[in-house]
Amino acid sequence: MEIFKKRRVLIIVAAAMLAGFMLPKAYSAADQTYQQLRVLVEVMGYIKDSYVDPIDTKDLIYGAADGMVRKLDDFSQFMEPDVNKRVKSDTEGEFGGLGIRIAARDGFVTVITPMPGTPAYKAGILPGDKIVKINGEDAKDMLPDDAVKKLRGEPGTKVKLTIGRELEEKKGDDRWITKDFELERAKIVPEVVQYKMLESNIGYLRLTDFSGHATEEFTKALTDMKKQGMQAFVLDLRYNPGGLLTAAVDISKYFIGGNKMIVYTKGRAADSYQEFRAAAHAPYEDLPMVVLVNGGSASGSEIVAGAMQDNKRAVIIGTRTFGKASVQTIIPLSDGSGLRLTIARYYTPSGRSIHRNPKTGTGGISPDMEVKVSREDEIKVMEQFDKLFFPPTAEKAATQKTYSETFGKDKKDGQEKEYVDETLRRAVELLKAREAFSALKHG
Fold first, then answer.
1. Which of 297, 324, 337, 421 is catalytic?
2. DSSP 188-212
């Protein structure tokens, strides 16, 4: 009898909560929602009273909230207080750990990109690597947030990872090679911008995300390259998973003027429609420009690439982007938890929705010039970014004046083999060709 009294109290409380925010709405809709909510409260009551082991009510409520949000899409998320705090620190641009961005892909926690200069980057972990084990624990089907909790820790402490890397050429059942790493955690302040002057006064900038420091660091880099005589520009957004919409818009404004559309958002609510436009003039609106993208470019990267493409401002080179056109907002909840909720989708200036359809495989931004790169060469180029951006000595850095000298060489069959970033090479050649045609026009 006591069990049913408790359950009745829970139902009455739930009904009172519903009435508080549904009074202005139709009674029939409120009644239907009440009946549906009643099922949830009944289930919680039976679990509390009859489940074989005691269970905390908070765990049940968090579980129900998580289940509701998972029904929506891949990007909405209910975040418990510790996760909410961690996400906030990520967006602001400082946290502790190994320095890898991860996501769920095909049942594995997958590396989207290692952050330059971090323990994971220096150890040679690459985009596309699967995390098979964390400290000996099987990570198959592990949620990314659960993996992050295990990867984060006090600087100086260590974590063991087993990484799986897919072979480009399958040999029988051997699809993967695995390797064990023991990494020391460090305070991570992401280095979101790397840049360098290439030959023919071409500036090259690699942007790894659109977090809190991105616009500031981007501005400094452009100013420095302009002082060095930059006459053309390559913006590398490969493996950039996105970040803040405002950062993507602000960076686009450096190159697009004329009050042109950069991106607009639209959702169910009337106030979800927002237009983001360029200013009347842009500091670099006449700078010849190429943008590099691939399947790891998502969200903010696609906003920039889409704005450049639709406004015919830059040539997009690489492979088709991921296709994440959803806009999330983070809503703080009363107990410190948070709700990351998709409230709109963004559209490129021409009205394209590039949101990925996992069933058809459509979505993303198709490049103007497609450049497919083998996995082997992609890995070699990633490994050699250290040689480009973190040369051993200042003396060696001073000698890297031409494009061919910006990448290291590898031994193969006793011979030196040079691995060339083919996508970047195409961008450089295109910009050099523009320079040649310009000289003919004005000669």
1. 324
2. E----EEEEE-GGGEEEEEE--BST
Q: What is the pLDDT of residue 94?
A: 56
- In 3D space, the residue among 141, 129, 137 whose CA is nearest the CA of residue 176 turns out to be 129
| 369, 433 contact by CB (below 8 A) | no
Residues contacting residue 86 through CB under 8 Å, at least 6 positions apart: 95, 148, 152
Given 252, 310, 326, 421, the catalytic residue? 310
Query: What is the number of other CB atoms lying within 10 angstroms of the CB of residue 12?
Result: 11
What pLDDT is recorded for position 406?
Answer: 35
Dump pLDDT digits (tens) for 30-45.
667 778 888 888 998 8
Domain annotation for the chain: domains and CATH numbers: 2-79 (no CATH), 95-188 (2.30.42.10), 193-370 (3.90.226.10)
Q: Is 97:127 a contact under the CB 8 Å cutoff?
A: no
Q: Is 6 a catalytic residue?
A: no
Helix (H) or strand (E) holding 178: strand 174-184
pLDDT band at 82, cuts 50/70/90?
confident
Query: pTM of the prediction?
Result: 0.75
Q: Render 132-172 in DSSP notation, one character per residue.
A: EEETTEE-TT--HHHHHHHH---TT-EEEEEEEEEEEEEET
Catalytic residue, candidates 252, 299, 326, 337: 299
DSSP 287-305: S-EEEEE-TT--THHHHHH
What's the Cα-to-Cα distance from 281 to each of 11, 285, 303, 400, rounded to whole Å?
Answer: 60, 7, 19, 35
* CA distances (Å), origin 157, targets 109, 125, 135, 185, 261: 22, 19, 12, 6, 48
Biggest CA–CA distance in the chain, Å, is 97
Sign of torsion over alpha carbons 214, 367, 111, 405: negative
Of 195, 238, 233, 236, nearest in space to 217 by CA = 195
Whether 5 sits among the annotated catalytic residues: the reply is no
Q: How far apart are CA 157 and CA 186, in angstroms?
A: 8
Contacts of 307 (CB under 8 A, 6+ apart): 252, 256, 261, 262, 263, 313, 348, 349
Residue type, 240: N
Q: Is 324 a catalytic residue?
A: yes
